[in-house]
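Sample entry (536 residues):
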Amino acid sequence: MARLCMPSLPFSKQKRMPPFYALDQDLPLALAISSGFQHALAMLAGLITPPIILASALSLDDETSAYMISASLIGCGILSLVQMSRIPLFGGYYLGTGLITVVGTSFATLSTANSIFNAMYNDGTCASTTADDGTVTRLACPDAYGKVLGTSLICSFLEIGMSFVPARRLQRIFPPIVTGTVILLIGASLIGASGIPNWGGGSNDCAGRPTSGIFELCPTIFAPRPLPWGSPEFIGLGFLSFVSIILTELFGSPFLKNISIIVGLAVGCIVAGAAGYIDRSTIDSSPAITFLWVHTFKIGVYPPAILPMLAVYVSLAMEAIGDITASAEVSRVEVDGIEFDSRIQGGVLSDGIGGFFSALFTVTPLSIFAQNNGVIAITRCANRTAGRWCCCFLIVFGVLGKISGVFLAIPNPVLGGVTTFLFATVAVSGIRVLSYVKFTRRDRFVLAAALSFGLGDLLVEDVFTHLFDGVANPSSGLKGFFDSITIVLSTPFLSAGLVASVLNLILPQEDAEELDPVIDDDAELAEVESQHKKHG
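Predicted structure, serialized as tokens:
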């Protein structure tokens, strides 16, 4: 345990590694508690970020926003306990993986929810006001959140059904070239939609730098020290948090490296508090104790969101398979065979059921988190007792309402500097998955076609929003269908994932002996050089 707190210095020698604690091995209580606490801290930034962003997108009040953070922490703790179990069911099926596979709010859901909220404000489901200078201000719309919850609840049955399909068949339908592209674009879109805008001062209406109204300054004109979006003070605060993460990785102990995101938040908040950027009102208004259903949302279904949510659950199932495989590897259990396939099946089933119950918990779909695999590798503790302590800490963090108030008080630039790095790690995970692709000519073609849609949609985000403007007086059903297509096409990872999936299924595989990849690459390089000389 002392090894985890010793700082790492450049050029220092590696000391002898401590023992490895397997899944059900006897574990000292102190080590179980400390490892569980480290798991909880490693998850914290990823758990609090989605509810903060969702609440901001809907202009919800501080009290509701703080509750959403608490509900997310409590829901993650409860459903992680289920995921770590391995409960036998009928016919040789299981519920849960039996590994330290914790759950958290999926970033895929976050990206899609933003597109759904945009559609709701555009079609009048949620109200907004327009100032004299043309600035559009979104009004609070808690019912939109309830509709996302209700839609995700009914769509969760898709992933539940997918859990009974053999894992190997799912992996053939959704190979790394599909899942890697999806994960890459999830991270990239979140950087542009939330990370960088918050770094500049806020992802709300102040990012447009209006000349009047409450969003003339960021985060609003009522903040303790409001400034225009992109002010050097804001950029400096975010950069301080960002650099703190880098320095922690360079000099920090193994314990600190696993919570480098929390270190970045803490350093940024200390400086921001000293400079007067922190508003204590969220802390003062938060209850001392809270729990699920203290606030409720009117559950409903938004028909245009059904297709996008179904696509999200397909993405969650694919992510779950990859994360469970990684967890099994670092936990030193088999990653092949009947037992491993049952862990995949149990994990995907628990993921789908978790999506159903998370909606009842007033939380957007919760899926398996990959961040904790690094904690297992560093602490050399894959014991489920540590995982259960982690769940206990998460539930306690959620019940103590003041903690959510503290998280909500984090200034936008500090949050932006940290989440930009966090979302970039998601994108890098997608690149890592793509590294498993052999990149034959066929694979490069599929990836190029998928990124044509994904990157194009990412860089010009409203390109598909006027696709059906020429249709005169569509019926309500037809309009809902058009809105569904628009949401799918306007969400980079959904449009790219759809193109990659279709092309992967219809394009024939290349024979290994048909063309040597090295020769193929050299031929293409020579052709490019020849074209360059001709035009030169």
